[in-house]
Design a protein that fits this description.
153 residues, four-stranded mixed beta sheet, three-stranded antiparallel beta sheet, 13 strands, globular
Amino acid sequence: MTEGNYDSIKIIIDNFVLNATYPKGIRWECKRCAACCRDTEFRRRILLLLETDVERLLKYSQDFFDSVSCKEPFIGKMKIMDSKCVFLDEEACTVYEDRALLCRTYPFFIEVVQGIYEIKFDSQCPGIGSGRVIGKKFFEELLKICVQNRGLE
């Protein structure tokens, strides 16, 4: 996927208009490899947590995150043990149903650039380039989930 191969979308949620761009023509399929849950040779995995993420995950452990400041709306950072998420057991997430928002949206993430929400992706994800083409509706739903969970307004 080349840089600049993006398309635009506009969604309205509760009278809030959100303009965004998304990667056009990208193929992706989750390989269930758990590469997203661990450090790689090329990057250290940092998973920021929202207050709602922390609240959901507290039922599994009291010692899974470190507090962070200046990363609003995030309040914490997931701990890493042996170069992997503390909730990863072999190749499976032990908190899958309650996993953090950034885990739910991976390999996609959002950056705000000059008031435009840019949906980007981690090119190191083994699922990028395989599977079906991810279309506009997928990215609209991803934005809605993020607005509802993060308060992107």
